[in-house]
Fold this sequence. Notes:
Elements: H1 2-35, H2 42-49
Amino acid sequence: MSEMNKPNKNSRIFIIVFILFVTLFAYISYDMSSRTTAPWNKPKQLNRALPGATPDADSLKLDSLLEDIK
């Protein structure tokens, strides 16, 4: 009789460990995603961290990466 319960016990342990692993992985994924900023939201990151630290728009209306070519 004890041999019939062994596979049942092993499968129950496997299912419990699997559920704990998936739950832990989901929690870590959610935590990481809530702490990071998507690449398209990077300009908004400083404004969210320190409100009023940067102007919402470019006051000079210039792109600092482009230079006039004459």
